[in-house]
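User: My notes are a mess, but here's the protein and adenosine-5'-triphosphate's SMILES. Can you give me a structure?
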Amino acid sequence: MTAISLKNLDISYGHTQITHGVTLDIAAGASFALVGESGSGKSTVLKAIAGLAPQWKGDIAVNGKPRSHGIDRGFSKMCQMVFQDPYGSLHPRKTIDTTLSEPLDIHGIGNQGKRVEETMAAVGLDRRFRFRFPHQLSGGQRQRVAIARALMLEPRILLLDEPTSALDVSVQAEILNLLKRLRREQGLTYLMVTHNLPVVSFLCDRLAVMRGGRIVEVADVAQLKAGTLVDPYSRELLAANKGHALESA
Ligand SMILES: Nc1ncnc2c1ncn2[C@@H]1O[C@H](COP(=O)(O)OP(=O)(O)OP(=O)(O)O)[C@@H](O)[C@H]1O
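Assistant: No problem, the inputs look usable. Here's the predicted complex:
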C-alpha cells in the first residue's frame, strides 16, 4: 500500500511558488528521505502534507485518502510531524504530562495517564520527567518528548523535519537509534528531511533529491551508498558530503 502519494504538487507562500510538480509515492513501512540544497522546498513539502502550508495545487493522499486543504482531525491520527528544534516546538509553560495529554484531550481519548507513561517508556524517557517543564530537560530529552507527542495518537506515519540537526553529535546518534527502533517496533512510515547523507544511509531506504522546488532524482539508499546517483546535482551533493560520517549510530 502507498502511505503518501504526491502528484504534481505546486506549493506557494503568497505569490511565490516554492515547489513545482512534486510527484512521489512512498510505500507503507518505508523510510524515505528528502535531501537537497537549502531553500529547495523540502520542509515545505512536509508542511503541505501536515496541513501547515495550505496553499497548494495538485494531489496529496495519505493512506489512500485525499487530503483536503487545512486542518483535518482524522488526518492527524494517521500522520504527525516532528520538528527540528525541540525547544521551540514545546510549550515552555506546559509540563511534559500536559503536552503529551493534549492530543488525547482533543480527540476525546481516555486512559490518559497510562498512555502517557507507556509512550514515555517507548521513547526512553524516565517517568520522573513527567511533571517537569521543557527547560528542565536536555536537548535530547526534549526531542524524545517531541517524538512521544507525535506518537500519542498512534499514527502510522511520521514526518520528520531534520529531527536531529539541532542536537549535539552524540545525542543525534541516540535519537537516530530511537527512531530506528520505533520504526521497527511500530511498523511506522517515515518521510524525513535532512542535510546529512550519513543519516539517510543509517535510517532510510529511499531518497529524493530536490533542487529549486523540483525533484531531480529518486533513488534507493543502496545507490547513495555505492555512490551511483545519476543526476549531476545529486553527484555534487554526494561529493560535498564525502568524509562526513555519522560518529556512532
Ligand atoms: N512561511 C513562509 N512564508 C514565506 N516563504 C517561506 C515560508 N517558509 C519557507 N519559505 C520559503 O520557501 C522556500 C523553501 O523553504 P523550505 O524551508 O521548504 O526549504 P528547505 O529545502 O527545507 O530548506 P532548508 O534545508 O534550509 O531547511 C525558501 O525560499 C523559504 O524562504
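The first helix runs from residue 42 to 50.
User: Great, I'll file this with my notes.
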